[in-house]
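FORM 12-B: Structure-to-Sequence Request
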């Protein structure tokens, strides 16, 4: 499973599948080119509301099934949950056939395409708690100035530290890094033999955090200009590359692991940059490992990345009104906190923040990072550009950051704007 979206279990499909979807698309909208403001949501009817999810595992599947069943009993509307084996493919087939699930997990990667061809009905402006969602999450699910769908939960990146190794190196809480210089210093002290001080997955979904911390990003804040090869981004990758060259940092892949959590669990890295899903993986695979979670250090500013999915409502849903009422139920403060208890996600509504941190104080660094979290580009074609960038980042030790980012700049310019 791709750890970038571990909690949602949404897998990648070939570009051909996406291209096929662009040509089909459901759509009860007049022009067929995408959703329009004021999409019709009639009162709920008696048709079953079907929900297609990309589950991270049994715990998430059971939690969603229980929540949907509770809503069904309360509303009197029948409802069902189908865990997908390949969500993008199954959703694509449903949209193409004109008989999709009423509610579908939608990642930022697929939002633009599915919104653009009319497969999704925009409903964000009809949510009673629209102002309760974190602004960056609303931005992630906004296409052409329309807030399409309610974020169901989200993840951010933080720094996870092996407590035993930290203490053995003579480090204390006062040494927790808050700047890049301090990060480099503790990484040097924690590196020993084949173990590096800092580990990470060789992908933009981890290293992009350094760009955010240096005031950079792959596109401008308004999403209209490609900024991949900006001086801020080049400097950020150069900082990481130097740590790699000095053998105090390494990618999980270079260490022989599949992702950062595995490298951390196998004690190949004393610190790792990962999302909040790492806690469940460590509890399952390395239950005796002791660790501390802190916010990522700052460059010129604080910065991290966030990852999220929404509850999409199909334009061809048999019970669009019922689907909307179900989504409202699933995104209440109480239900989001219950999902956090059931399968470890972070609530997407700000009203749940205090309750979440009270119940899960060790997770506070992840949630507190929401205020400076950045989204990766998600316009149509972005996923292919990011996959190409990831393949180049695997070679960062032997490649100049300027060279890598110049090629990405050209690719992004072809799809941005």
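FORM 12-B RESPONSE
SEQUENCE OUT:
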């Amino acid at each position: 499973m791709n750890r970038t979206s571990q909690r949602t279990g949404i897998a990648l499909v070939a570009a051909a599948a996406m291209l096929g979807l662009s040509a089909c698309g459901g759509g009860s909208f007049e022009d067929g080119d995408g959703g329009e403001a004021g999409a019709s949501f009639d009162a709920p009817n008696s048709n079953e509301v079907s929900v297609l999810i990309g589950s991270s595992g049994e715990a998430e599947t059971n939690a969603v099934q229980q929540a949907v069943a509770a809503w069904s009993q309360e509303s009197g509307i029948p409802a069902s949950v189908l865990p997908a084996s390949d969500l993008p493919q199954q959703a694509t087939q449903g949209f193409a056939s004109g008989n999709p699930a009423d509610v579908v997990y939608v990642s930022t990667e697929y939002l633009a395409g599915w919104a653009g061809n009319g497969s999704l009905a925009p409903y964000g402006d009809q949510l009673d708690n629209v102002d309760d969602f974190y602004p960056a999450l609303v931005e992630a699910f906004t296409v052409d100035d329309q807030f399409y769908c309610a974020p169901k939960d989200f993840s951010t990146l933080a720094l996870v530290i092996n407590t035993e190794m930290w203490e053995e190196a003579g480090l204390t809480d006062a040494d927790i890094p808050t700047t890049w210089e301090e990060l480099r210093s503790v990484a040097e002290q924690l590196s020993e033999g084949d173990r590096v001080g800092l580990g990470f997955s060789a992908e933009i979904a981890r290293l992009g955090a350094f760009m955010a911390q240096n005031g950079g990003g792959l596109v401008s804040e308004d999403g209209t200009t490609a900024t991949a090869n900006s001086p801020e981004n080049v400097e950020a990758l150069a900082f990481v590359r130097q740590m790699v060259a000095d053998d105090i940092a390494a990618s999980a892949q270079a260490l022989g692991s599949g992702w950062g959590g595995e490298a951390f669990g196998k004690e190949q890295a004393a610190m790792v940059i990962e999302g909040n899903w790492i806690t469940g993986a460590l509890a399952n695979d390395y239950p005796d490992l002791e660790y501390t979670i802190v916010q990522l250090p700052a460059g010129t500013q604080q910065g991290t990345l966030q990852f999220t999915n929404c509850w999409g409502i199909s334009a061809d849903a048999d019970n669009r009104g019922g689907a909307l009422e179900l989504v409202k139920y699933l995104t209440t403060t109480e239900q989001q906190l219950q999902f956090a208890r059931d399968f470890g996600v972070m609530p997407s509504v700000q009203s749940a923040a205090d309750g979440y941190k009270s119940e899960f104080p060790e997770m506070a660094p992840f949630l507190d990072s929401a205020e400076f979290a950045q989204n990766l580009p998600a316009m149509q074609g972005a996923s292919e550009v990011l996959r190409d960038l990831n393949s180049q980042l695997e070679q960062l030790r032997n490649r100049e950051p300027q060279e890598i980012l110049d090629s990405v700049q050209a690719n992004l310019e072809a799809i941005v704007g």
